[in-house]
Amino acid sequence: MTEILRSAINILSEALVPLFIAVVPLVAMIRGVKIYEQFVEGAKDGFNVAVRIIPYLVAILVAIGMFRASGALDWVAGAIRPLTEAIGMPAEILPVALMRPLSGSGSLGLVTELINTHGADSFIGRLASTLYGSTETTFYVLAVYFGSVGITRSRHAVLAGLLADATGVLAAVFICRVLFL
User: Helix crossing, 157-180 with 2-30: angle to 10°?
Assistant: First the structure.
């Protein structure tokens, strides 16, 4: 059963990206959207947004650096290790799960390190990669997007983002255990 599921997922994953690349411009042309003009307009707006979010980016990068350098990441990982072991998540993956809501590049560095250590086709390598794609850089996204439009109070967005990240971690562990163990 898992081999059939694995084959179906491989076929679907190989077909989705080319299909998406073909369908989006086709739908835009059918709707009469001037694709090139819209692209150029978006690029101009993107530059203005980039200038506005620089202070927020600097703040989040400094905070991430302090979090990692202080040893807080290792402390938090140690504190919740019994919970992760109970759900079947190897301890080596925990720093990736904790870093991912904070920093894409920081978590990518951790994933790369795990893949170099354990191998790309190992359970840990596959789980780290799946987890990386199943979660979001919640605090970075909130800082950038909210900062770009001037929102200063995030209200429930942080909690919703972190719950989505936790769901992504649980789903990654479940799917990888079903497909790769």
Answer: 130
